[in-house]
């Protein structure tokens, strides 16, 4: 069954940021949402941060404590919390919303936080700087364009990991098709290799009946994990 009905206010706030408003307006909405964001995503049973962190930790070859990781579109720090639980300690974050960054700063989980509007400006990091880069939840219609993928790759070390998520609900179908085409092109050009593309049925609660998967009350989503080429050579 669909469980409890989502409060209308939560539905409205989620719908507002996913609506095709212009970027400055949307960043303002995120600033305003920051204080209630974690309550709302808890109500949504939003599983992306948990699923992404688990996938990355599973693939990670080394003890994660010394690895440098960039959490892109970090929001209030939901992904950092999950990564921290799995032993990652050197976390940097960027987000386009100053309000979200303020909340992320208060968690004490990040060594460094910077304001950066993805798709508008480059990431504030040198090339081949990070052992892993995550972009969880922001790859979607009206949010971060899939044209940012090369920029994520630029700041990743060769052999490093890029972990991404997107939603598979009807409103995001066109965006997801474009994203997967871009992911595939980078794979064909041997920029990275795919380790995982995991479709997850119960990704988060649907905010409308139309978006819900076959009346379950939930939408589905997907976790992608890539490794940047050239890959580390295995010892003979």
Task: Provide keyphrases for this structure.
236 residues, alpha/beta, Rossmann fold, MET27 protein
What's this entry about, in short?
With 236 residues, the chain is of the alpha/beta class.
Q: Could you please describe the fold and organization of this structure?
A:
The protein has one domain (8-228): Rossmann fold (3-Layer(aba) Sandwich), CATH 3.40.50.150. Helices cover 36% and strands 26% of the residues. The protein is built from seven helices and seven strands, in the order αααβαβαββαβαββ. Strands 3-2-1-4-5-7-6 form a seven-stranded mixed β-sheet, sandwiched between helices. α4 links the parallel β1 (68-72) and β2 (90-95). α3 runs parallel beside α4. The longest helix is centred in the first third of the chain and has 21 residues, at 23-43. It is globular and about 50 Å long.
């Amino acid at each position: 069954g669909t469980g409890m009905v989502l409060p209308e206010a939560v539905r409205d706030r989620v719908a507002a940021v996913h609506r095709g408003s212009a970027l400055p307006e949307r960043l303002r909405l995120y600033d305003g949402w920051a204080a209630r964001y974690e309550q709302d995503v808890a109500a949504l049973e939003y599983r992306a941060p948990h699923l992404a962190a688990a996938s990355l930790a599973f693939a990670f070859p080394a003890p994660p404590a010394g690895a440098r990781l960039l959490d892109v579109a970090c929001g209030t720090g939901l992904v950092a919390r999950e990564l921290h639980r799995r032993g990652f300690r050197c976390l940097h974050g960027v987000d386009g919303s100053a309000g979200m960054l303020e909340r992320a700063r208060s968690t004490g989980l990040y060594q460094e936080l910077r304001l950066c509007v993805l798709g508008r400006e480059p990431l504030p990091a040198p090339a081949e700087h990070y052992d892993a880069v995550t972009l969880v939840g922001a790859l979607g219609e009206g949010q971060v364009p899939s044209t940012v993928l090369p920029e994520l790759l630029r700041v990743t070390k060769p052999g490093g990991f890029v972990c991404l998520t997107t939603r598979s609900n009807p409103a995001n179908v066109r965006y997801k098709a474009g994203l997967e085409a871009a992911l595939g092109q980078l794979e064909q050009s041997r920029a990275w290799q795919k380790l995982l593309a995991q479709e997850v049925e119960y990704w988060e609660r649907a905010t409308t009946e139309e978006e819900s998967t076959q009346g379950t009350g939930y939408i589905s989503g997907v976790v992608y994990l890539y490794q940047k080429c050239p890959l580390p050579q295995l010892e003979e």
